[in-house]
Amino acid sequence: MNSDSIPTELLREILSRLPTKSIARFHCVSKQWESLFDHAYFRELFLTRSFSDHPRILFVIEKEGLWSIFSVPQRLRPYEKPSSLSSLVVSSEFHMKFPPENMRIDAGRGGRFAFGYASGLMYFSGMRIKEEDYRRMPVICNPKTGRYGTLPSFIKYWYTVVHSFFGFDPIDKQFKVLAMEYPFRHNHHKIMTLAPGETTWRRIKCSFKHEKVSEGICVNGVLYYLGETCEDKVDDEDEYEKFVLVCFDVRSEEFKFIYLERFCELINYMGKLGVIHYDYVDDAMELLVWVLEDFEKQKWSKYEYTLKDDKFLPYHVSIVGVSATGEIVLSMGDYTSEQPFYVFYFNPERNTLQRVEIKGFGEYHEALDKPSRVHVFVDDCSRFYAFADQVEDLNVNDHMLLE
Protein backbone atom coordinates (compact mmCIF):
# COMPACT_ATOMS: atom_id res chain seq x y z
CA MET A 1 0.00 0.00 0.00
CA ASN A 2 1.30 3.42 -0.93
CA SER A 3 1.58 5.74 2.04
CA ASP A 4 0.70 8.65 -0.28
CA SER A 5 -2.87 7.31 -0.44
CA ILE A 6 -3.26 7.44 3.33
CA PRO A 7 -4.40 10.76 4.81
CA THR A 8 -1.57 12.44 6.70
CA GLU A 9 -3.61 12.66 9.93
CA LEU A 10 -4.29 8.90 9.84
CA LEU A 11 -0.66 8.10 9.03
CA ARG A 12 0.47 10.18 12.00
CA GLU A 13 -2.00 8.38 14.26
CA ILE A 14 -0.76 4.96 13.11
CA LEU A 15 2.95 5.75 13.35
CA SER A 16 2.60 7.44 16.74
CA ARG A 17 1.79 4.00 18.22
CA LEU A 18 5.13 2.48 17.15
CA PRO A 19 8.01 1.89 19.58
CA THR A 20 10.59 4.65 19.92
CA LYS A 21 13.39 2.62 18.29
CA SER A 22 11.21 1.97 15.24
CA ILE A 23 10.55 5.69 14.83
CA ALA A 24 14.31 6.35 14.84
CA ARG A 25 14.91 3.70 12.16
CA PHE A 26 11.98 4.78 9.95
CA HIS A 27 13.56 8.19 9.32
CA CYS A 28 15.34 6.48 6.41
CA VAL A 29 12.16 5.22 4.67
CA SER A 30 11.53 8.35 2.61
CA LYS A 31 11.77 12.13 2.60
CA GLN A 32 8.05 12.26 3.37
CA TRP A 33 8.40 10.11 6.49
CA GLU A 34 11.46 12.02 7.65
CA SER A 35 9.53 15.28 7.33
CA LEU A 36 6.55 13.76 9.14
CA PHE A 37 8.64 12.54 12.08
CA ASP A 38 10.37 15.90 12.42
CA HIS A 39 7.09 17.82 12.52
CA ALA A 40 6.39 19.36 15.95
CA TYR A 41 2.79 18.09 15.96
CA PHE A 42 3.88 14.47 15.45
CA ARG A 43 6.51 14.70 18.17
CA GLU A 44 4.03 16.10 20.64
CA LEU A 45 1.47 13.42 19.70
CA PHE A 46 3.97 10.57 19.91
CA LEU A 47 5.74 11.63 23.06
CA THR A 48 2.64 12.58 25.02
CA ARG A 49 1.00 9.24 24.26
CA SER A 50 4.14 7.17 24.74
CA PHE A 51 5.26 8.78 27.96
CA SER A 52 1.84 9.04 29.60
CA ASP A 53 1.15 5.37 28.80
CA HIS A 54 4.53 4.12 30.04
CA PRO A 55 5.84 6.20 32.96
CA ARG A 56 8.80 4.54 34.70
CA ILE A 57 10.63 4.44 38.01
CA LEU A 58 14.40 4.55 37.50
CA PHE A 59 16.86 2.73 39.80
CA VAL A 60 20.56 3.59 39.75
CA ILE A 61 22.86 1.28 41.76
CA GLU A 62 26.40 2.35 42.66
CA LYS A 63 29.49 0.17 42.66
CA GLU A 64 33.00 1.63 42.83
CA GLY A 65 32.31 4.56 40.52
CA LEU A 66 30.18 2.49 38.11
CA TRP A 67 26.40 2.81 37.91
CA SER A 68 23.95 0.11 36.85
CA ILE A 69 20.67 1.61 35.61
CA PHE A 70 17.31 -0.22 35.73
CA SER A 71 13.64 0.72 35.53
CA VAL A 72 10.17 -0.66 36.19
CA PRO A 73 6.73 0.62 35.11
CA GLN A 74 5.02 3.01 37.52
CA ARG A 75 1.60 1.49 37.01
CA LEU A 76 1.15 -1.95 38.51
CA ARG A 77 -1.88 -4.19 38.83
CA PRO A 78 -4.71 -2.95 41.10
CA TYR A 79 -4.76 -3.72 44.81
CA GLU A 80 -6.17 -7.15 45.56
CA LYS A 81 -7.16 -6.12 49.06
CA PRO A 82 -7.13 -2.52 50.35
CA SER A 83 -5.43 -3.50 53.61
CA SER A 84 -3.12 -6.17 52.23
CA LEU A 85 0.62 -5.86 52.86
CA SER A 86 1.55 -8.93 50.79
CA SER A 87 4.30 -8.11 48.28
CA LEU A 88 3.90 -7.93 44.55
CA VAL A 89 6.95 -9.06 42.58
CA VAL A 90 8.12 -7.08 39.53
CA SER A 91 11.10 -7.78 37.26
CA SER A 92 13.25 -4.76 36.47
CA GLU A 93 14.47 -3.85 32.99
CA PHE A 94 18.23 -3.30 32.67
CA HIS A 95 19.24 -0.28 30.58
CA MET A 96 22.98 0.31 30.81
CA LYS A 97 26.13 0.59 32.88
CA PHE A 98 27.65 4.04 33.13
CA PRO A 99 30.20 5.55 32.62
CA PRO A 100 32.19 3.88 29.80
CA GLU A 101 35.56 2.29 30.49
CA ASN A 102 37.60 5.43 29.83
CA MET A 103 35.79 7.37 32.58
CA ARG A 104 34.92 7.05 36.23
CA ILE A 105 32.53 8.94 38.48
CA ASP A 106 34.36 11.25 40.85
CA ALA A 107 32.90 10.91 44.33
CA GLY A 108 34.47 14.20 45.44
CA ARG A 109 34.98 15.18 49.05
CA GLY A 110 33.01 13.19 51.60
CA GLY A 111 32.13 10.51 49.03
CA ARG A 112 29.41 12.65 47.44
CA PHE A 113 29.19 14.44 44.11
CA ALA A 114 26.76 16.80 42.45
CA PHE A 115 24.23 14.89 40.40
CA GLY A 116 21.00 15.96 38.73
CA TYR A 117 18.04 14.38 36.95
CA ALA A 118 15.62 16.45 34.88
CA SER A 119 13.15 15.50 32.18
CA GLY A 120 14.78 12.18 31.35
CA LEU A 121 18.46 13.25 31.32
CA MET A 122 21.12 12.69 33.98
CA TYR A 123 23.81 15.23 34.84
CA PHE A 124 27.14 14.49 36.57
CA SER A 125 29.16 17.49 37.74
CA GLY A 126 32.53 15.72 37.77
CA MET A 127 33.56 12.79 35.60
CA ARG A 128 37.24 11.86 35.57
CA ILE A 129 38.89 10.89 32.27
CA LYS A 130 41.30 8.04 33.02
CA GLU A 131 43.91 9.23 30.54
CA GLU A 132 43.82 12.67 32.20
CA ASP A 133 42.95 11.79 35.77
CA TYR A 134 43.37 15.30 37.14
CA ARG A 135 40.54 16.66 34.98
CA ARG A 136 36.90 16.65 36.04
CA MET A 137 34.35 17.14 33.25
CA PRO A 138 30.58 17.66 33.54
CA VAL A 139 28.69 14.96 31.63
CA ILE A 140 25.05 14.51 30.58
CA CYS A 141 23.60 11.09 29.84
CA ASN A 142 20.32 9.69 28.54
CA PRO A 143 19.76 6.44 30.48
CA LYS A 144 17.10 5.28 28.00
CA THR A 145 19.40 5.39 24.97
CA GLY A 146 22.89 5.18 26.49
CA ARG A 147 24.05 8.33 24.74
CA TYR A 148 26.16 10.85 26.62
CA GLY A 149 28.21 14.00 26.06
CA THR A 150 30.81 16.04 27.93
CA LEU A 151 30.38 19.74 28.75
CA PRO A 152 32.83 22.58 29.44
CA SER A 153 34.23 22.45 32.96
CA PHE A 154 33.12 25.02 35.53
CA ILE A 155 36.37 24.97 37.50
CA LYS A 156 40.03 25.66 36.72
CA TYR A 157 41.61 23.68 39.54
CA TRP A 158 40.94 20.06 40.50
CA TYR A 159 40.74 20.82 44.24
CA THR A 160 37.93 23.40 43.88
CA VAL A 161 34.66 22.35 45.51
CA VAL A 162 31.64 22.94 43.28
CA HIS A 163 27.92 22.47 43.85
CA SER A 164 25.73 22.29 40.78
CA PHE A 165 22.13 21.59 39.78
CA PHE A 166 20.36 20.48 36.60
CA GLY A 167 17.10 22.00 35.36
CA PHE A 168 14.74 22.07 32.39
CA ASP A 169 12.67 24.96 31.02
CA PRO A 170 9.48 23.47 29.52
CA ILE A 171 8.54 26.69 27.66
CA ASP A 172 11.72 27.20 25.63
CA LYS A 173 12.54 23.48 25.99
CA GLN A 174 16.07 24.10 27.23
CA PHE A 175 18.25 22.29 29.75
CA LYS A 176 20.48 24.42 31.99
CA VAL A 177 23.17 23.78 34.61
CA LEU A 178 23.45 26.06 37.66
CA ALA A 179 26.77 25.92 39.52
CA MET A 180 28.48 27.66 42.44
CA GLU A 181 31.86 27.42 44.14
CA TYR A 182 32.40 26.76 47.84
CA PRO A 183 32.77 28.77 50.05
CA PHE A 184 29.75 30.63 48.72
CA ARG A 185 29.78 34.25 47.71
CA HIS A 186 27.15 36.42 46.04
CA ASN A 187 28.96 36.60 42.71
CA HIS A 188 30.18 33.00 42.43
CA HIS A 189 27.18 31.57 40.58
CA LYS A 190 27.37 30.56 36.94
CA ILE A 191 24.91 29.05 34.49
CA MET A 192 25.21 27.17 31.22
CA THR A 193 22.51 26.55 28.60
CA LEU A 194 22.75 23.17 26.89
CA ALA A 195 22.23 24.02 23.24
CA PRO A 196 24.38 23.59 20.12
CA GLY A 197 26.89 26.42 19.98
CA GLU A 198 25.87 27.83 23.37
CA THR A 199 27.59 25.56 25.89
CA THR A 200 29.57 28.24 27.71
CA TRP A 201 29.37 29.37 31.33
CA ARG A 202 27.84 32.77 32.11
CA ARG A 203 28.07 34.53 35.48
CA ILE A 204 24.79 35.43 37.22
CA LYS A 205 24.05 37.19 40.50
CA CYS A 206 22.47 35.74 43.60
CA SER A 207 21.51 38.38 46.18
CA PHE A 208 21.26 35.97 49.09
CA LYS A 209 24.27 34.24 50.67
CA HIS A 210 23.46 30.62 51.48
CA GLU A 211 24.97 27.15 51.64
CA LYS A 212 23.50 24.17 49.82
CA VAL A 213 22.31 21.31 52.07
CA SER A 214 20.26 19.14 49.67
CA GLU A 215 20.19 17.90 46.10
CA GLY A 216 18.13 19.88 43.61
CA ILE A 217 14.82 18.99 41.98
CA CYS A 218 13.29 20.66 38.92
CA VAL A 219 9.51 21.01 38.91
CA ASN A 220 7.66 22.69 36.04
CA GLY A 221 10.59 24.93 35.10
CA VAL A 222 11.70 25.86 38.63
CA LEU A 223 14.80 24.40 40.25
CA TYR A 224 14.40 23.91 44.00
CA TYR A 225 16.98 22.99 46.63
CA LEU A 226 17.35 23.41 50.37
CA GLY A 227 19.93 25.83 51.76
CA GLU A 228 21.17 27.20 55.05
CA THR A 229 21.78 30.88 55.66
CA CYS A 230 23.63 32.56 58.50
CA GLU A 231 21.98 35.69 59.86
CA ASP A 232 22.69 37.89 62.85
CA LYS A 233 20.55 37.54 65.92
CA VAL A 234 18.67 40.67 66.95
CA ASP A 235 20.09 40.78 70.49
CA ASP A 236 23.33 38.89 70.02
CA GLU A 237 26.37 39.19 67.81
CA ASP A 238 26.51 35.46 67.22
CA GLU A 239 25.09 34.00 64.04
CA TYR A 240 22.40 31.37 63.78
CA GLU A 241 21.32 29.17 60.92
CA LYS A 242 17.99 29.07 59.14
CA PHE A 243 16.76 26.72 56.46
CA VAL A 244 15.71 28.36 53.22
CA LEU A 245 14.02 26.94 50.15
CA VAL A 246 15.94 28.24 47.13
CA CYS A 247 13.71 28.66 44.06
CA PHE A 248 15.56 29.28 40.79
CA ASP A 249 13.47 29.98 37.69
CA VAL A 250 15.30 28.17 34.88
CA ARG A 251 13.87 30.40 32.14
CA SER A 252 14.27 33.87 33.73
CA GLU A 253 17.39 32.82 35.72
CA GLU A 254 16.14 34.60 38.83
CA PHE A 255 16.40 33.49 42.47
CA LYS A 256 13.62 33.61 45.07
CA PHE A 257 13.59 32.28 48.62
CA ILE A 258 11.16 30.89 51.18
CA TYR A 259 12.12 30.39 54.83
CA LEU A 260 11.44 26.95 56.30
CA GLU A 261 11.31 25.92 59.93
CA ARG A 262 13.27 22.67 59.61
CA PHE A 263 15.06 20.30 57.29
CA CYS A 264 12.85 18.50 54.75
CA GLU A 265 12.95 16.41 51.60
CA LEU A 266 11.78 17.75 48.24
CA ILE A 267 9.77 15.81 45.67
CA ASN A 268 7.81 16.44 42.49
CA TYR A 269 4.17 16.16 43.59
CA MET A 270 2.37 15.79 40.24
CA GLY A 271 3.83 18.96 38.73
CA LYS A 272 4.07 20.91 41.99
CA LEU A 273 6.75 21.11 44.66
CA GLY A 274 6.19 18.74 47.56
CA VAL A 275 7.95 19.28 50.91
CA ILE A 276 8.18 16.11 52.97
CA HIS A 277 8.65 15.68 56.73
CA TYR A 278 8.50 12.24 58.30
CA ASP A 279 9.35 10.51 61.55
CA TYR A 280 8.99 7.06 63.07
CA VAL A 281 6.68 6.57 66.03
CA ASP A 282 6.70 3.04 67.41
CA ASP A 283 6.20 0.83 64.32
CA ALA A 284 4.68 3.51 62.07
CA MET A 285 5.86 6.34 59.83
CA GLU A 286 4.24 9.70 60.53
CA LEU A 287 4.22 11.53 57.20
CA LEU A 288 3.59 15.26 56.69
CA VAL A 289 3.29 16.52 53.10
CA TRP A 290 3.17 20.20 52.12
CA VAL A 291 2.37 20.99 48.48
CA LEU A 292 3.22 24.47 47.16
CA GLU A 293 0.05 25.72 45.44
CA ASP A 294 0.96 29.41 44.97
CA PHE A 295 4.52 30.71 45.32
CA GLU A 296 3.70 34.43 45.40
CA LYS A 297 1.09 33.98 48.14
CA GLN A 298 3.13 31.17 49.73
CA LYS A 299 0.00 29.06 49.83
CA TRP A 300 0.47 25.42 50.81
CA SER A 301 -1.82 22.40 50.95
CA LYS A 302 -1.01 20.22 53.97
CA TYR A 303 -1.62 16.50 54.43
CA GLU A 304 -0.84 14.08 57.26
CA TYR A 305 -0.66 10.29 56.93
CA THR A 306 0.31 7.31 59.06
CA LEU A 307 2.00 4.41 57.22
CA LYS A 308 2.82 1.01 58.69
CA ASP A 309 5.05 -1.76 57.37
CA ASP A 310 7.54 -3.94 59.22
CA LYS A 311 10.15 -3.30 56.48
CA PHE A 312 10.37 0.47 57.04
CA LEU A 313 12.78 0.76 59.96
CA PRO A 314 15.30 -2.06 59.28
CA TYR A 315 15.68 -1.09 55.60
CA HIS A 316 15.93 2.72 55.95
CA VAL A 317 12.99 3.53 53.68
CA SER A 318 12.50 7.10 52.39
CA ILE A 319 10.11 8.98 50.08
CA VAL A 320 11.35 9.26 46.47
CA GLY A 321 8.43 10.77 44.53
CA VAL A 322 4.82 10.57 43.39
CA SER A 323 3.54 8.31 40.61
CA ALA A 324 1.37 9.28 37.64
CA THR A 325 -1.70 8.09 39.53
CA GLY A 326 -0.95 10.18 42.63
CA GLU A 327 0.57 7.46 44.79
CA ILE A 328 3.45 8.42 47.08
CA VAL A 329 6.44 6.19 46.28
CA LEU A 330 8.86 5.06 48.99
CA SER A 331 12.02 3.03 48.50
CA MET A 332 14.82 1.28 50.31
CA GLY A 333 18.10 3.17 50.11
CA ASP A 334 20.56 0.26 49.76
CA TYR A 335 20.80 -2.94 47.74
CA THR A 336 22.45 -6.20 48.76
CA SER A 337 22.09 -9.65 47.22
CA GLU A 338 21.34 -11.10 50.66
CA GLN A 339 17.95 -9.41 51.07
CA PRO A 340 14.99 -8.41 48.89
CA PHE A 341 14.72 -4.89 47.53
CA TYR A 342 11.35 -3.17 48.12
CA VAL A 343 9.49 -0.12 46.96
CA PHE A 344 6.16 0.94 48.46
CA TYR A 345 3.11 2.66 46.95
CA PHE A 346 0.94 4.68 49.32
CA ASN A 347 -2.46 5.73 47.94
CA PRO A 348 -3.68 8.77 49.94
CA GLU A 349 -7.27 8.51 48.67
CA ARG A 350 -7.69 4.86 49.67
CA ASN A 351 -5.27 5.04 52.60
CA THR A 352 -3.65 1.84 51.31
CA LEU A 353 -0.03 0.76 51.20
CA GLN A 354 1.31 -1.78 48.69
CA ARG A 355 4.74 -3.35 49.02
CA VAL A 356 6.51 -4.33 45.78
CA GLU A 357 9.63 -6.48 45.53
CA ILE A 358 11.94 -5.56 42.63
CA LYS A 359 13.79 -8.50 41.06
CA GLY A 360 16.60 -8.63 38.52
CA PHE A 361 19.27 -6.32 39.93
CA GLY A 362 21.68 -9.19 40.66
CA GLU A 363 21.73 -10.38 37.05
CA TYR A 364 23.62 -7.24 35.95
CA HIS A 365 24.99 -5.79 39.18
CA GLU A 366 27.44 -7.83 41.21
CA ALA A 367 26.90 -6.97 44.86
CA LEU A 368 29.85 -6.13 47.08
CA ASP A 369 30.31 -7.15 50.70
CA LYS A 370 28.82 -3.85 51.79
CA PRO A 371 25.40 -2.61 50.58
CA SER A 372 25.28 -0.63 47.33
CA ARG A 373 23.58 2.75 47.45
CA VAL A 374 20.47 3.10 45.26
CA HIS A 375 19.24 6.37 43.71
CA VAL A 376 15.56 6.29 42.72
CA PHE A 377 13.83 8.67 40.30
CA VAL A 378 10.10 8.79 39.54
CA ASP A 379 9.40 10.11 36.04
CA ASP A 380 7.42 13.33 35.93
CA CYS A 381 4.41 12.63 33.73
CA SER A 382 3.21 16.15 33.01
CA ARG A 383 2.62 17.17 29.40
CA PHE A 384 5.38 19.80 29.57
CA TYR A 385 8.08 17.28 30.36
CA ALA A 386 6.92 14.60 27.94
CA PHE A 387 8.24 16.49 24.92
CA ALA A 388 11.82 16.65 26.16
CA ASP A 389 12.08 13.24 27.79
CA GLN A 390 12.61 11.26 24.61
CA VAL A 391 13.21 13.88 21.93
CA GLU A 392 16.66 12.51 21.15
CA ASP A 393 15.17 9.07 20.49
CA LEU A 394 13.05 10.36 17.60
CA ASN A 395 15.92 11.68 15.52
CA VAL A 396 19.45 10.60 16.32
CA ASN A 397 20.89 13.56 14.43
CA ASP A 398 19.01 16.53 15.86
CA HIS A 399 20.13 16.45 19.49
CA MET A 400 23.76 17.47 18.96
CA LEU A 401 24.61 17.54 22.65
CA LEU A 402 24.24 13.77 22.84
CA GLU A 403 25.96 12.87 19.58
UniProtKB/TrEMBL annotation:
Task: Return the SUPFAM superfamilies for the record.
Answer: F-box domain
Output the PROSITE patterns linked to this UniProt entry.
FBOX
- Per its UniProt entry, which superkingdom is the organism in? Eukaryota
Q: Where does the record place the F-box domain?
A: 1-45
Q: What is this protein called?
A: F-box domain-containing protein
SMART domains cross-referenced by the UniProt entry: FBOX (SM00256)
User: InterPro entries, per this entry?
Assistant: F-box-assoc_dom_typ3, F-box-assoc_interact_dom, F-box-like_dom_sf, F-box_dom
Species lineage: Eukaryota, Viridiplantae, Streptophyta, Embryophyta, Tracheophyta
